[in-house]
Every structure is written in C-alpha cells, then in structure tokens.
C-alpha cells in the first residue's frame, strides 16, 4: 500500500472512531446521570429503613417495659387477693369458714402459677402442660403430706404446650381432683395417684395426633355415700362446670370391693395442644 493510500485510510478510520465516540457520549452521560439518581434513591431508602428500624426498636422497648409493668401488676393483684383471703381465714370463727378461705386461696395460687408458667415458657400465652401438671401435683403433695400415697407421673410429652385459655381451667380441675383424691380416696393412707399425658391411640378429625390427660387413683376408693356427698360439694361442682367448658370428663369407676375410684380425663386435639 502506498503512503498516500495509508494516510487516507488512517484519516477515514480516525474519523470513524471519533464519530463513534461522539455518538456514544451523550448516552453515556445519560446513563451516568440515571445511575447517580438511582444511587441517591438507594441512599434515601437506606436512611428511611434505618429510621424505621430505630422506631421499631423503640416501640419494642416501650412494649417490653409496658409488658413488664403489666406482669408486675398482675402478680401484685394475685398477692393482694391471697393476702385478703389469709386475713379472712385468720379471722374466721368456725373451722369450716377457715377451710373455705384456704381452699379459695389455693385456687387463686393455682391460677397464679398458670401465669408464672406462661412467663417461664418463653412463648407468649402458652404453657408447658407437663410442667404445669407436675407443679400442681407436687404442691398438693407437700400441702397434704400423705407419705403412703405415691405419685406416678407418666408424661413423656415435655414439649407439649397449650394456650392460657385452656391451661387455667385445666389447672383448676386437676387441682380439685387431686384435692378430692387426697381427702377421700386414700382412707387407709396408701395408694397411687396417677397423672398421665400421652398420645391418644385415636386421631383427631383432621388426622393429627391427639393427646390425653388422665388423673386417677388406685387406692381403696370411695363409698357410694361419699360419692353422693362429693357431688354436692363446691369442688365437684366446679370440676363439672369447667369440664363442660373444655370438653373433659369426671367419673367414678367401680372397684372390685364395691367402692369407686375417681378419674378425670380430657383429649386434646392439635388446635388445643402442640
């Protein structure tokens, strides 16, 4: 190629490259401008999210403080009620009156323990069922002090929880049943108090595993006349009313000696316990 032709070619190529650069430059500037706008929007979004996060943190902190205050007031209210009942018991003129105050105080303590168990569970408005049942049984055992009566716990479902709306009546029922058993079912001072929590052999209507709670005795049992007396007492009336609320059952099972063993049972479906 001659020198003249090479110079012409270089001029044409150079002109083409320069033209290309000139044609792309406005678009490049526009792209840069759009990127800057997007960057500004992202920075603004980040700042907004940071502010919102701070607001949420403050809100959570405020709610935590409020919740702690509510817990404190609820506990104080339980203590005030218990103190009033203790005053009533101490000022009662008749032993039967004092006993009524004591029984009511025990029921209040059971309700307070449901609340305590809820706080310890770490799950809002949930209570660990096995832990609650063990507490009620142990508290009754140390209150009555019948060393000849043995408590059998058959509860392997330690991670089973239920809502407070079920836990409260359930705890009150179990407390009443255990109190009845200690008072009437072990006339010779010996026997077994059984507390069971286990998967049911049947499934619930949706095909999920159901769970059964049973509280019963294997002592000498109660007589027919004692059974008739119990049916008129506040404890059994309370048991039956609460059973109708949560779907439990309270029955007397005939023994070989002609007496009756007391049994409470309830089946819990997946919506009630999980």
TrEMBL record:
Name used for this protein in its record: histidine kinase
Provenance organism: Marispirochaeta aestuarii
This enzyme's EC code(s): 2.7.13.3
InterPro entries: HATPase_C_sf (IPR036890), Sig_transdc_His_kin_sub2_dim/P (IPR011495)
Residue ranges of domain Signal transduction histidine kinase subgroup 2 dimerisation and phosphoacceptor in the record: 69-140
UniProtKB keywords: ATP-binding, Coiled coil, Kinase, Nucleotide-binding, Phosphoprotein, Transferase
PANTHER family: ETHYLENE RESPONSE SENSOR PROTEIN, TWO-COMPONENT SYSTEM SENSOR PROTEIN
Leading EC class: transferase
Catalysed reactions, as listed in the record: ATP + protein L-histidine = ADP + protein N-phospho-L-histidine
GO MF assignments: ATP binding; protein histidine kinase activity
Pfam families: HisKA_2 (PF07568)
Coiled coil stretches, renumbered: 25-69
């Amino acid at each position: 190629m001659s020198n003249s032709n090479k110079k012409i070619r270089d001029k044409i190529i150079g002109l083409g490259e320069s033209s290309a650069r000139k044609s792309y430059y406005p678009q490049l500037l526009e792209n840069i401008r759009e990127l800057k706008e997007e960057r500004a929007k992202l920075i603004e979004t980040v700042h907004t999210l940071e502010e919102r996060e701070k607001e949420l943190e403050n809100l959570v902190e405020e709610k935590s403080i409020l919740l702690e205050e509510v817990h404190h007031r609820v506990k104080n209210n339980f203590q005030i009620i218990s103190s009033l009942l203790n005053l009533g018991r101490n000022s009662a003129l008749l032993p039967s009156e004092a006993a009524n105050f004591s029984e009511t105080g025990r029921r209040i303590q059971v309700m307070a323990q449901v609340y305590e168990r809820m706080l310890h569970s770490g799950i809002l408005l949930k209570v660990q069922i096995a832990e609650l049942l063990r507490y009620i049984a142990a508290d009754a055992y140390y209150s009555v002090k019948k060393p000849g009566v043995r408590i059998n716990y058959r509860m392997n479902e330690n991670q089973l929880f239920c809502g407070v709306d079920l836990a409260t009546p359930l705890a009150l029922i179990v407390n009443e049943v255990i109190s009845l058993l200690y008072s009437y079912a072990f006339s010779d001072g010996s026997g077994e108090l059984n507390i069971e929590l286990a998967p049911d052999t049947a499934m619930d209507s949706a095909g999920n595993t159901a769970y059964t709670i049973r509280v019963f005795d294997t002592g000498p049992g109660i007589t027919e006349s004692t059974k008739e007396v119990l049916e008129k007492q506040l404890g059994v009336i309370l048991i039956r009313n609460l059973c109708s609320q949560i779907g439990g059952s309270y029955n007397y099972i005939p023994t070989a000696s002609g007496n009756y063993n007391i049994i409470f049972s309830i089946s819990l479906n997946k919506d009630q316990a999980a």
